[in-house]
């Protein structure tokens, strides 16, 4: 890998084929998400989004799991309501920004993704899990609730009763069950979630970046606008894409029966 940069709680690298990896790297804490990790996630994703080499990002965890929830030891140290409130507002802003990244993102889940770990995965465009993995939001068991968008994203993605069971009881879902509800997109055998995520990222990286970005924006926007407004946005995106070099390359390659080489222009 090339293009590495050092962070305190994560490891970031970029491959020559345009795939970036962000490894959550606190294995002794089951990759629990503390304030420093949120800072590192903010800075690394901003940097990768500005890097013209990068066309897709894969998040994964070091050690036995993708990520536990928030670092409870850190949260317990707050002696007033203001500290946790500021932290929750900060992590929500960072997670929202990750969800809105122009690059496609993939979470490779093994072991478990609980609490803030699952909430991070929910911000990704795709989630691939090992068959033995579990996902959940157990915060109710320590007297609080998911605070990084979990109550809202789970409620939008799941049937109401299943979302309530996860949030109000803290019950996790096995990967196969999560797949059935669309909470994860693919389940793989063994411990090959990262390999499957990298393969998907390479497919995404080979596609025209401007079209991928526009497609992601349109899909996200569809949840917040009327059908008519969404169709108008689609028309504007198509008008823009028809002016790009990648559109010319894609159509030429199709007619010439060769592989296209997209440059993001």
Give a nutshell description of this structure.
The chain has 265 residues and is of the alpha/beta class. 46% of the residues lie in helices and 16% in strands. It folds into two domains: 2-205, 2-enoyl-CoA Hydratase, Chain A, domain 1 (Alpha-Beta Complex), CATH 3.90.226; 209-256, Orthogonal Bundle (Lyase 2-enoyl-coa Hydratase, Chain  A, domain 2).
Number of beta-strand segments:
10
| Subunit arrangement of the protein | single chain
Which CATH architecture of the largest domain would you pick? Alpha-Beta Complex
The structural class is alpha/beta
The Rg value, from CA coordinates, equals 19 Å
- The amount of beta strand, in percent, is 15-25%
CATH topology of the largest domain, by name, is 2-enoyl-CoA Hydratase, Chain A, domain 1
Number of helices: 11
Q: Given this structure, which CATH class of the largest domain is correct?
A: Alpha Beta
Are there runs of 5+ residues with pLDDT below 50, and where? none
Cα end-to-end separation: 25 Å
Main β-sheet: number of strands, strand sense, barrel status?
7 strands, mixed
CATH superfamily of the largest domain: 2-enoyl-CoA Hydratase, Chain A, domain 1
- Shape assignment: globular
Query: Quick check: average pLDDT?
Result: 92
User: What is the element string, with H for helices and E for strands?
Assistant: EEEHEHHEEHEEHHEHEHHHH
